[in-house]
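Let us work through a complete example step by step.
Step 1: write down the sequence.
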Amino acid sequence: MVALLKDAVPVQAVLGTQWGDEGKGKVVDLLGETADIVARYQGGPNAGHTVEFDGECFILHHIPTGILRPHITCVIGNGLVINPDSFQEEIAFLKGKGISIDKRLWISQNAHLILPYHHLIEKVAEEDKGSETLGTTGRGIGPAYADKASRVGIRVGDLLDPGRLAEKVAWNVQMKNGILEDVGGKGSVNVKSILDSLRYFGERIKACITDTSWMLHQEIQKGKRLLVEGAQGTLLDIDFGTYPFVTSSNTTIGGMATGLGLPPRKLDRIIGVIKAYTTRVGNGPLPTELKGAMGEKIREMGGEYGATTGRPRRCGWFDGMVAQYAVRLNGIDVLAVTKLDVLDTLDEVQVCIGYEYRGKALDHFPLTMSVLDEVEPIYDTMPGWKTTISDFKRYDDLPKPARDYLERIQTIAGIPIGIVSVGANRDQTIWME
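Step 2: predict the structure and record it as tokens.
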């Protein structure tokens, strides 16, 4: 399988197959070695992609992971929502690490902006839900996408038109302050402060703003190799995830077409990143969740705390029903399995091979929440390998129980595994043969 992943193809995509936090950042970084462009197509600063190399840890929220490789040009597509303040902090962080973005980072003129009133509205909405809260990151993502759908959002391209920008900000501030007053006067926003910050932001990024869809088409025609980077995971998709406990964008492969302006037939390969166990942040169903000591043990061994919020992730066994669903929905060609090393010390590991609902086996992953809340996982129990595998470089060097575990995942998913990550660093990777 070396030819499947190490050899570059013109256009390939990397996306998450679970509830996010699968380790996509590392996989994009690895594949970036043979890419010319890395483009991200959805989400906002609620996503945190983590990469470690040369003893340093990089956590990125807006900017594609490809920025860490000096030869790569990065694109932020129209499907993203951008927080001007945290975006500038991210650029400052990269520059402080000696990483230049000059003529390497391009931003779609159609990407939407997250503004202070989005944060306030999300905070009020979450507070009013009480025990029914969705467990959002509180970054204003949902309200920003809501404004986009309502056709009142402020886009990056508006920063280049001061008159239009002022009109749109004034209208939005009036409307949002009215909403905030109606729900109890829980804060307000000011037109001048927002305009001042946006004008400053516009000056700083105006050289990066372009029609990224046109740009990508031109670069592909020139023979440049494109790596598409997804954020979050399949089960957080606004349409196909565990709604309403989802994000506000299409995390699945369809979001690539709308989020970058590329037709699906341009894709040559789709890589699904899947963790060797299952996690999710926030509320919502997690059928294989381990709520006792084993779940806490996996969380500590895996460092399962949100890269964006620091919140502890809920942990569970590998869920084959989720894997099959993600493969089918996205048309995934090959898997990248991450964090296999986290399971090194366990005496045994369990693999969910199906669900039962009220005594009957289900033949596919259910999206009705009342059903998903009641399903009982069906498990296969497999022996652990009780060996530290972080320094292994070849698949054949892995202990047989670890190889059996990977082959079980491969069989359940119905597609091959191309990468196995056995640690956070770039060199802690097994390329399958």
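Step 3: interpret the result. Residues 134 and 244 are 7 Å apart (CA to CA).
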